[in-house]
Amino acid sequence: MRTTITLEPDIAARLHRLAAERGASFKTTVNATLRAGLDAGNPAAKPYREATRSLGVQPGIDLTKALRIAAELEDEETVRKLELRK
Predict the structure, then answer these.
(1) Is position 16 within any domain?
(2) Domain total for the chain?
(3) Which residues of the chain have pLDDT under 70?
(4) How far apart are the C-alpha atoms of 51 and 67, rounded to whole Å?
(5) Pseudo-torsion of CA 57, 62, 68, 69, nearest 10°?
(6) Residues 6-30: pLDDT tens digits?
(7) Nearest-angstrom CA–CA distance, 41 and 56
(8) Residue 18 lies in a domain
């Protein structure tokens, strides 16, 4: 397909340099560069999978209350630090 585009001077210069380095025509270089740019936006990557592991939960520890326990530990540490300032 034949079309007309307006390139900014710095882009045109980079494309001409790249064409000269590759020993390719300007048209081929523009098409290859556009193709690479368009393909970079849609990589065919595999979906991310997270490996899971057993936490080795000990009897008597209820993980559903972990945030409460963490908050209590943080409060205790804050109190300890405040008491050290006295």
Answers:
(1) yes
(2) 1
(3) 43-45
(4) 23
(5) -50
(6) 999 999 999 999 999 999 999 999 9
(7) 42
(8) yes
pLDDT value at residue 27: 95
Positive or negative CA dihedral for 50, 54, 60, 61? negative
Q: Residue 43's pLDDT is what?
A: 67
Q: Domain of residue 29: give its range.
A: 9-40
The CA–CA distances, whole Å, from 32 to 23, 36, 37, 39, 42 equal: 13, 6, 9, 10, 16
54-62 — which CB contacts under 8 Å span 24+ positions? none
- Token pair for residue 70? 């963490």
Q: Is residue 32 part of a domain?
A: yes
Instruction: Return the sign of the alpha-carbon dihedral for residues 35, 37, 1, 22.
Output: negative
